[in-house]
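re: ur question from the group chat, yeah i did fold both. here u go
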Amino acid sequence: MVAVVFVSFIILFVAAHRVKQCVYPSIHYSKVFTYNPENLDRLEFDIPTGSISVHTCPHAKNVTVLVTVGGKTIELMSKIKLTVNETSGALVVAAHGPSFNLQNCQIIHVEVVIPAKSSHLLTLNASTNVGYISLNGESYTFESVTTKVNVGVIKARHVKAIEFSASVYLGKVSGSDLETKNISVKADVGFACVKHVRSQHIAFNVEKGYLRACHVTSSNTTVAKVGMGYGALNDIMSENLLGEIGYGRMWAEPNTKFSGSVSFSSVDGTFDVSASRGLLAPTIVTYEQQNHEVQKVQIPDETPGVTGKGKLDFKAETGTVNIYLRRV
């Protein structure tokens, strides 16, 4: 038993050491770009493997971009092609090289610092094939933000923008304190977790996996879709809440002041708002079957001062909706 533990420890140590060498290789070079915020309109980064970190600083005067390229050997470094285009009002950084593996360990890190007090709006486009994108835009407003990762993680905090989009093919999207006009979060396979979101139009989409959204406020429409898996929506305030579950289950708990409409469609799934309490009447609940037949039920207002409770069950071959409402 002791031998097994010892061997396992050695394997984990070697693996951790190799991963660390890949993330921070000994052979590397860096390039730094500095701009007056008023002279820069767009930042675009497209790297095969690595990380892109964008954050604000209250003490910064200029926009600073640090690009670090690393690899295990000098021969490998010569095969990594870093392209930097500085056009009027834009910085475009793209890299191409051999496919990533733990033997070669080719990697690129991009770090961006934006003055938090700048009033000039930037457009940010960031993408990586395998890696990590981190965004913290506290006290700053973007024109638009588009992030995409094929395999990896996107993490956004304190982001204010007119348009915001985050997409992963395999991995995780997490975000908190997001204020936008339009927001789109998508995970083909994986996990999406967002909280404290304020927007006009909101779209959450997880093809296969788990969706978690809480403390969401929309002045128009909130769309939550899960193709196969599970979804949990907590403290939702929206004019229209549209839930769609292909195969699986989705739980929804609207805000106690929610007075809009709830619509649900499914192939073979369950939409459950049984945990909802204290909803204001009238509340429109719409259930759309696969054959597009629509049923609408309005929860009647209760007599003032009297606690009422209504139970609505929609069942069909294509899905189930369980609703327990209580006005307090």
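okk and heres the other one u asked abt
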Amino acid sequence: MIRRLLLAALTVSMLATAHIPARAADPAGLWLSADGDVKMKVAKCGEAICSSIVWLKEPNDAGGKPKVDKNNADASKRGRPVIGSGIILAMKPDGADKWSGHVYNAEDGKTYSGSFALSGATKAELKGCVAIICKSKTWTRTN
């Protein structure tokens, strides 16, 4: 009799937790690129996440001046500093530990459809795509 009660309680417990959706981890914080040349700060932007560049290994150009967003497709933004410019642009939740939306690449000045997906507490993959061709970079949570 006790055995049946324990089995019933275990079954009820398993069924009760089976319908609880997985809670997404918090992506907010500082992230370092795999090359170690860029740090971005990820933060919540309402229901979405956004990020901006907060550190560059080489923040100045050959002339010793702060790097600017010279490749931006929008000519009016080509004089803005790279530090402070966005990378993750209002990505919305797209499953547990994944956000989808747009990503900006200052290297070529283009915006791509993309995603940011956590793979554990300290690693994430940032992906940008054009049609079916995608490129990814791994980022590591840092201080």
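fwiw on the second one: The first strand starts at residue 29 and ends at 33. The two ends are 56 Å apart (CA to CA). idk if thats what u expected
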